[in-house]
From TrEMBL, chains A, B, C, D:
Catalyzes the NADPH-dependent reduction of N-acetyl-5-glutamyl phosphate to yield N-acetyl-L-glutamate 5-semialdehyde. Its EC number is 1.2.1.38. It is an enzyme of class 1 (oxidoreductase). Keywords: Amino-acid biosynthesis, Arginine biosynthesis, Cytoplasm, NADP, Oxidoreductase. The active site is at 146. Pfam families: Semialdhyde_dh (PF01118), Semialdhyde_dhC_1 (PF22698). Gene3D superfamilies: Dihydrodipicolinate Reductase, domain 2 (3.30.360.10), NAD(P)-binding Rossmann-like Domain (3.40.50.720). This is N-acetyl-gamma-glutamyl-phosphate reductase. The lineage of its organism: Bacteria, Bacillati, Bacillota, Bacilli, Lactobacillales. The gene is argC. Residues 2-140 form the Semialdehyde dehydrogenase NAD-binding domain. Its main location: cytoplasm. InterPro entries: AGPR, AGPR_AS, AGPR_dimerisation_dom, AGPR_type-1, NAD(P)-bd_dom_sf, Semialdehyde_DH_NAD-bd. GO terms for molecular function: N-acetyl-gamma-glutamyl-phosphate reductase activity; NAD binding; NADP+ binding.
């Protein structure tokens, strides 16, 4: 199988490329630059990858002709336009950007501050949260956001089983700097980031409506959640520390059952009662590790999830979507070596 | 004025020593080692301080004879015993350890897992949260804990003014490794700490009852709060991210008024609506910077406070207590240069 | 093929285990603990690996019976004794520790401050610097040290081709903390290591005689080199910055030719004139990247090599030795994804 | 005494401002922005300083009228032009930039790639390496570069006493990111700098000719030295690791005598035989700590010096120059608290 990849130069794009090269069901990967007019050697932009490939000029017809599917790993706002011919042709796409994640065009305009995709295209798009939906049969898969993945996976068992007061949900999410990408900015200038914590987009992060859209699928009454993001002085990883009141009468047993039933057969999710994961234990892997505990004094449940933002939070989940789409083995291409220490 | 210092070798102890040496009302500082039998040169244990002083053997009578007051900066559990002669003699003490912070002996035993001080001594002790109480006239001042300081200062205006549902309080506190002191441990081994986040003492941190004791002084109905601590891959600083539901009808104006009224004349506290502090902006100083915002959608108030755990969270507040105790200028000895960048 | 691994719990041991599990010519890996009397689940000591294996008690006969070869990844001083039955039986061993690296027993005693292996065993041992020797036919392979690998690979083309004044060699080597292993120590306590540089073992590092032994094979006149080691505030990687005077008349062309001829067909070495590698570009891989430049003003040649100390500096080179020993593909099991970013 | 400061917004500029505010001989500090047309509040650009001051528009006549002297802490190339009226008026200036450091206009053009100051102005400028020259009587003081300070102080005793083969000098210098200033760049983007080492300006750093100019004052035969710079994943500090061959017959005693005689009465320099300083032990202070050792096997002398690049390497030495210029106490304004831990 030949696959296309538009956007190899970003952090998650290059990780995705390396995963695809090792994927047992992929024969070759063709690279494209979405704003590129002439071919460029990959070596010249990403020498660290030590690959002889070329990044080809962008041409949608060409992409569809030479590949059985294509990944888009570009900035928000780009695929709104670029994806149209693929959507029209029902050509298989996995889109790692945010353009097609939200259900409502208004929400997209409000949170992304960009023109939204057409309603018909939005309807065609499938939100690929692999642990709860299947991309089998989908042609256009919108791969979830990194914060959204970590947060939804932490809260899902409690929301699905209606164990909590959903008006009480508080998420204190933290991310390393790779989530901010390659663009230079003051907040990611080493002298500023190092030995520091910086909050950003408080109450305004575009993953909030994405999280709420999904939670509402399980419980219509879930309101907008309290969600903050803090930039960490480290490169990779997201930790979502979630807090929520258990409903009256809910016991530790109920909470544990919810997590066990929800995740016992999920290859890439490990949920443990009373043991909170460290961030590092998932780096370099596609795992989402979750610790949870009902505090009998406050009757709050603490749920802490950790993921590698470039893997389970981006390229790794994209591979899971790819596996679902084409009915490959669910963990194909994802037997990764953890970064230890 | 001559002051004694028991425990210069710890991280906050050495900072306290440097502050005392520069304090305009201090003539000399005598150092003592609480388990020391013979004098030892400071140079031999802390060459970085470049000071010719000796650490003298411990003798309570000697300390009282040669000093007008004494600071204890030792591990929890030590002053329970050591402080007795000073308490009996009403000799001025500022104690940076936790032994005399809690109001109840039972609580101390439960949270510290150590034998508690006698009731009469506990009564003699004054909890020196300088922004809300005065140590003037006190002889035994128990200096607040680092997490407790950051958290109480963040929540005080809302609790005092009864603006929030106190059963909803959630604190996600983060600390650098200096808070864990000099003792070697797996969680502070560089290869383990670096590029990592580690939760510890979830629901069991000994600063929880200290925080609640103080909040109850303002509102008897405050229950045990939800409080977690996360170890950061950086050396200095604490950030306490606090979340709480505003009571029905409470407006942004009410919240702002509470912070302005509470802190407008506090030299070392800067509280700002809608602007969240970075951790680094207080490092090297005695400031506590606070950002707060009522989220109109969730009706949660986010309050984020930052302090240097060794200064406002330990040695700096101890100097403030010292200034109050002896009626020196409130900011004497605390005009510090921030660590920039 | 079944292989044994003694010492999975150390940093390089667990990396080696992960590499072996993915190696195309390895059927199963049996784990042994060198001081272990009863079996222990790997999960209990290394939960991050998420592997169901057991670590078996140590028994040399058992190891030889159930495996076709064995890796030792234990502390220095252990295989001097443990390896004897394997050496006597000519059973294939790859030893990642330092015990059998030096040619002289006296040198071992002097630099390692331990009893040396017997002369006859030393003679049986092959120094497995894979880029210059082949382990084909060897039974006991001593895998090179991390600093030694980085330094020898940097200097080899110049020493082999007699282009430099070997009395002028200066090596300023730097390493992350993973090289110091899991043992707790003051110098690897996070608050001490972070934002710091610390020299250690200046002129006394045990890799010095190992480097010199090898260089002397190419040029008998090489004297003891000037070599210092500095501990970096990062986890993985070694950079060896080497300086040496070019002999009179040596040109940039001569230097370049030496590197090109020496390394042009070496899969895991990239040497480039005038472009100095960053440390990060090899992390997660088995590559050794080298930059070199003749300074026409000082007539010094600067050579900078970087490796991942746990891969090319330990487990990765061990796999290369394994491949040579059993005539597998030279790069079998080493197609690794770089840690980016 | 009133002093002016042009360029408070840079990293060393803000440190210098804080030092001046605490200096016992300074009454007030007036701030100027060299490209500024209207006044601007300091708070708006540097809120962390918590100072109410204004940055005034630039006007050389105004500066000379309202101050007894002025500091320039601006980018290289700016004072070449700006300083002229001050030089013409013999008005006291301390210039922290590189424009007037080199003796030769040609060297300046070659290394800085900018138009050089006029010959007559260069002659008027005094190179303010405070440990070896005195700025008493000087009107225009050029404050040394950070790398130059660390390197010259390490080598001075050996060069002055003619103990070494000066053709063998190798300097492997390392710096934190604050030396690169506030400008955003790829190499100081957190995801790139973190867990990395990056060489830069190999053989081309503009501090090389500055070092050589000074060494030649002590020994005319000193040639261009071998000097490389490596960017560290930390914010503050420089370590210069220097290597040089001792002349034949030179003993450990000779080397020690040279350091003792040169530095025994220097307040801010601590040189110790056989004990190598850590970087952190000088951070936050004006100290230069030096360790040195003659290796009897290689006959190389290793000299390692560490400074805080913003203090002894910039603002701290500028204060020392200020003290010399106006005959204040040599250590006035420099009793700083080390950053510990």
């Amino acid at each position: 199988m030949n696959v296309g990849l538009v956007g190899v130069t970003g952090y998650s794009g290059s990780v995705l490329y390396e995963l695809l090269l090792r994927h047992p069901n992929v024969d070759s990967v063709n690279l494209y630059g979405h704003s590129q007019k002439v071919a460029q050697s990959l070596e010249s932009v990403l020498p660290q990858l030590r690959r002889g490939a070329n990044i080809l000029p962008y041409d949608s017809a060409d992409i569809m002709k030479n590949n059985q599917m294509v990944f888009f790993d570009v900035s928000a706002g780009v695929t709104t336009e670029l994806a149209k011919p693929f959507l029209d042709a029902n050509f298989p796409v996995i889109d790692l950007a945010g353009d097609y994640r939200l259900k409502s065009r208004d929400a997209y305009k409000k949170w992304y501050k960009k023109e939204a995709p057409d309603e018909k295209y939005l309807k065609q798009s499938h939100y690929g949260l692999v642990d709860f939906t299947s991309s089998k049969g989908a042609t256009y898969v919108s791969n979830p956001g990194c914060y959204a993945t970590a947060t939804i996976l932490a809260l899902a068992p409690l929301v699905i089983n209606h164990l909590i007061d959903t008006t009480s949900i508080v998420v204190d999410a933290k991310s390393g700097t790779s989530g901010a990408g390659k663009s230079l900015s003051e907040s990611t200038h080493f002298s500023q980031t190092n030995e520091n914590l910086q909050l950003y987009k408080v109450n305004h992060h575009q993953h909030i409506p994405e999280i709420v859209d999904q939670l509402k699928d399980w419980d219509e009454d879930v309101p907008y959640i309290q969600f903050t993001t803090t930039l960490l002085p480290l490169t990779r990883g997201i930790m979502a520390s979630c807090y929520t009141k258990a409903k009256s009468g809910i016991t530790e047993e109920d909470v544990k059952n919810a997590f066990v039933q929800t995740y016992s057969d999920h290859t890439f999710i490990n949920a443990t009662e009373g043991v909170f994961p460290t961030l590092k234990q998932v780096i370099g892997t596609n795992f989402c590790d979750i610790g949870y505990q009902l505090n009998p004094v406050t009757h709050q449940i603490v749920i802490v999830s950790v993921i590698d933002n470039l893997l389970k939070g981006a390229a790794g989940q994209a591979i899971q979507n790819f596996n679902q789409m084409f009915e490959f083995k669910p963990d194909a291409g994802l037997d990764l070596i953890p970064v230890l220490p």
